[in-house]
Amino acid sequence: MLSSMIKEHQMRQNVKKESQENKRKDAIGAASNLTQALVDHLNVGVAQAYLNQKRLDAEAKQLHTSAINFSKQTNQWLTLVETFSSALKELGDVENWAKTIEGDIRTITIALDNVHRDLQTQTQ
């Protein structure tokens, strides 16, 4: 009787140990799944931040390139405007020179007309 009670007790203990072992394995599996889920969730955020950073870097490079091109275009326009301004000044100088020449020619023409009239008056 005592030996059967001991055997029964040992059997119950073995069943409880197996049950506890199964529960421990289930708990370890659940903890592992939870850890993996948390890591995956964090990785999604990190991956999104990484992609955003890459996109920002690409846009910053493009903006820098655009700024350099704009600067070059602006310098070309400034050169063009300066050239145009110089050309206008030269045209103004040419116009002034032409007016001076025109005035001198008128003076000479008037003088020649006066001389011609005086000569005609003297010959008559």
Automatic annotation (TrEMBL):
Signal peptide: none annotated. One of its GO terms (cellular component) is BLOC-1 complex. Residues 1-24 are annotated as: Disordered. One of its GO terms (biological process) is endosomal transport. It holds the Pfam family GCN5L1. Belongs to the BLOC1S1 family. This is Biogenesis of lysosome-related organelles complex 1 subunit 1. It comes from Aquatica leii. The lineage of its organism: Eukaryota, Metazoa, Ecdysozoa, Arthropoda, Hexapoda.
